[in-house]
Amino acid sequence: MKVVKAGLQTTLQGAPFNGSRHLGMPAAGAADCLSLALANFLVGKPCGEIAIEITLTDAIFEFDEPCSIAVVGAAEYVRINGHDHPQHQPLKLMAGEKLDIGPSRPGCRTYLAIAAEIHADGLLGGQSTYLAAGLGGFHGRAIKAKDIIPFSQVAPAVDLDRITPLNLRPHYSNNHVLRVTRGPEAVKAYEGVMDDLCLRPYAVGARANRMGIALEGAPLSASESSNMPSAAVFSGTIQLPPSGQPYLLGPDAQTTGGYPRIAQIIRADRHLIGQLGSGSRIQFVHTTAERAIEIYREKLSLLSSWLGQINLW
Amino acid sequence: MSVHDPMIHICDDWISIKLPDWKTILAAQNALSASNHWTEIVPGLDSIAVQFDPALLSPDDAARMASDQMKNLTRVVSHSSATVVIPVCYDAALAPDREYVAEKLGIAAAALPSWHASQLQRVAMLGFMPGFAYLESEEECHAIGRLASPRQLVSAGSIGIIGGQSCIYSFDSPGGWPIIGRTPLRLFDPAKNQPALLASGQTVRFQSITKDAFDNWQREENA
């Protein structure tokens, strides 16, 4: 598959790296694991297989062999040789055809799954791209125009009648409600900060990428000495730097940090981080850890009726 | 330790446990590693965190389990592993903040290599980037602090220092620590079975090498 137009940031992403955070290795992996899972399932692949993650702007690919694909995400349109085709179902491409995946509108990321094994660099049991260290994926970097993405000819059997049920299709939006539990430092001096976080509206600032998102809104009261001994952080952790502007960590965030961890987006909602683009509005809602896992299990149970065994990250 | 212990904080799929000192953190890391319930075990400077699959474990069960596993921590201080010697070239060409650090410490820049290489260091944790090591010196030291504005590019292998803490950059990356030298060793090599050169708890000593030795070593590392 030849890349005609790569777009802003297109990378190979699948399941995250697991069990290596003590080595300083972040999760990486698809920023929106739900859209990835839905796309992979349509081409007969396990949910965490490597697919192509496209960010914000449109991307164009040309296939030199016939191939089945599926597109799920925030893209405004999917076109084959200029003709519109739907998301959420497998599409057949003939040799020489051009696939144009439109810009994200609304939302931020789109996944292109291919009914063949995409060749990606492996390490620590994973193959996703971790851009900051140039590891995994396609030579550790974002895909550029003229790159050839190699994949095996052995395609899994694709059921062309497989269409994502309407009730399972994610709603792509620029307005998000994200549920959070209290973070380890949201106690004592920072106890009220968590409540303030959930009372005020926030917007995604210009500094937004796979590593993290600067949130804009009325600043929270950060203590003067808001550095603390570095401690574990995860995707979805919300830190409070001295500026008082909360910082939301993404899948490529470092494994430890020195700012107070005031809140944690619950696992069930973390896939939405991948759809937060500059200008998106967020309302945080406080929930408990116990309630959060009920929500997570309900979500898995709903999804597994279609996707089979699945986990989200 | 109980589930309502103020030292334990519970999120929906990870818990953070405050611990008194690095020996306890290291012992906790060993004890928790024996269990297959944890998808991640991440030591911090005064805490440890474990992540779990919330489809399988409830947060309270996870906290209870972690407490149980940490009940009888055997304080094995890792004298089992020998001190790792890290060659460092302190040549001015690779040490842009040599003068700045020497001035902060009140010593001559020429004396900096022997001062730094004489100290026994311990890996407090890995973080920031894969294989990036935070080191703590056994000797007391003035705080030096970070640079007023971080550099856009710090070369892989660079040795930073902010006082009693040193660090080794594992990849070319932005960075705010004053830089006093560079090692030719690769801190993280994805082709290796154990990609990270260092692990938390290990003791480290720096050894001063010449620029020529650095260049030769780096050629071999990259060969």
In brief, what are we looking at here?
The complex is a heterodimer of chains A (313) and B (223). Chain A is α+β, with helices and mostly antiparallel strands.
From the spread of the alpha carbons, the general shape of chain A counts as: globular
Overall domain count of chain B? 2
Arithmetic mean pLDDT of chain A: 95
Going by helix content, strand content and strand pairing, the class of chain A is: alpha+beta
CATH superfamily of the largest domain in chain B: Cyclophilin-like
* Proportion of helical residues of chain A: 10-25%
CATH topology of the largest domain in chain B: Cyclophilin
**Widest sheet, order of strands of chain B:** 5-13-6-7-10-9-12
Which term fits the overall shape of chain B? elongated
Based on the structure, what is the oligomeric state of the protein chains? heterodimer
Radius of gyration of chain B: 19 Å
Mean pLDDT of chain B: 92
Q: What is the strand tally of chain B?
A: 13
Helix-strand sequence of chain B: EEHEEHEHHEEEEEEEEH
What spatial order of strands do you see in the largest sheet of chain A?
11-18-15-16-13-12-19
**Biggest β-sheet description of chain B:** 7 strands, mixed
The structure class of chain B reads alpha+beta
Cα end-to-end separation of chain A: 29 Å
Percentage of helical residues of chain B? 10-25%
